[in-house]
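Consider this record:
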Amino acid sequence: MFDHTTGAGNFSQKLMSLLDKVEYRRVENSEDMEEVARIRYKAYKMADILTLNGSTLIDDIDFDSHAYIFGVYFEEKLISTVRIHHVTPDHRVSSTGSVYPDEINAFLDAGMSLIDPVRFAADPAILGEMPAIPYFTLRIAAMATDYFQADRVLQLVSPQHAAFYKRVFLAKTIVEPRKNCGKYNIELTLMATEANEIRTGLYRRYPFFQSEAFERRLMFARGSEMEFTPLTILPTARLVARL
């Protein structure tokens, strides 16, 4: 679909064009959750990431008050999903914190707030044909970082994916790759991006990660800020790029 070796400018233009066909849906009903859980299960089973039971993948902290689950749709087809945790010194629930509690607590004890994107899963049937999927999905983490004004974005990833996070998000290694990481069957490394230091450069290199404030509010506002859950949310990166 595209070749990112053709130059940063062409790459960003192609992704921006594809982003016009993307929509995000915040998952807060059982029907959408079942669809997301199935795609998680398919992706995690194929990669043997976790020991799985049943035919879907749902856990208790899917329903945590600081957890936000999203489906990413391309031409109205679900292509990927991610769960975002807003982790603060007063609310420390996160998947990554259960694997690396000492390192995550050190950030929190220093007064930082964190974005923890986990349960990233893409439809295995189309991932190979559409390498843009990680960018569209992780754009949600960029929006969460801006909305919550977080200090760090965590990356709990396999070593084979570490180079992507270093290249795109300038992520730094916090814990070197290791096996026997809790309930995970694969080797994992912990990385983190210093959000305030890389934001300007990230958006200059990859303008499709940008968003308008109203898009971020639709994605993450709850309670009195947002009394309803929008059915679908359209990306606003192109609007920002025109300013």
